[in-house]
Amino acid sequence: MRWKSLNKNRMDFLEDLELYNCAMDNAFNLITGRVKLDEMFIEMDKEEDDILPLPFNPMLVGIYSEDIIDLLIEHFTGFEEYEKCAELVKIKKQHVKGHQPS
Predict the structure, then answer these.
(1) What is the pLDDT of residues 64-88, one digit of tens each?
(2) What crossing angle do the helices spanning 66-78 and 2-31 adopt, rounded to 10°?
(3) Residue 97 to residue 58: CA distance in whole angstroms
(4) How far is CA 95 from the centre of its chain?
(5) What is the extent of the structural domain holding 18?
(6) Is the CB of residue 25 less than 8 Å from the CB of residue 17?
(7) How many other C-beta atoms lie within 10 A of the C-beta of residue 101?
(8) Is residue 10 part of a domain?
């Protein structure tokens, strides 16, 4: 009985981790312009998903939030995806208020 409980918790954790990684990938694609928000919603409808994983609400925050970009840089650094990090740093310099280009 205890084994089933531990296994279920592990599966919940793995599903949450997959959802988190999906949210980070979706945010990266949105911020870099690879995919537009309306395209994400259309794809969500096609797949009959009831959730669009994003680490922020793009209707409230906007896609060029310094905090969101920093979160993505930290996430992709952890996976050693430095090309994505470099692209995000460039976008941050171009779009975040108060951030002066070098």
Answers:
(1) 899 999 999 999 999 999 999 999 9
(2) 120
(3) 17
(4) 18
(5) 2-95
(6) no
(7) 6
(8) yes
Single pTM value for the model? 0.82
Q: For 48-86, b where at least 16 C-beta lie within 10 A, e where not — what string? A: eeeebbbbbebeeeebebeebbebbbebbeeeebeebbe
Please state, in angstroms and as integers, the Cα–Cα distance from residue 90 to each residue in 25, 49, 62, 76, following that order: 17, 32, 17, 15
Residue positions counted in the chain: 102
Residue 53 forms part of a structural domain: yes
Q: Is residue 101 domain-resident? A: no
Whether 102 is in a domain gets the answer no
pLDDT mean over 41-47: 86
Number of domains in the chain: 1
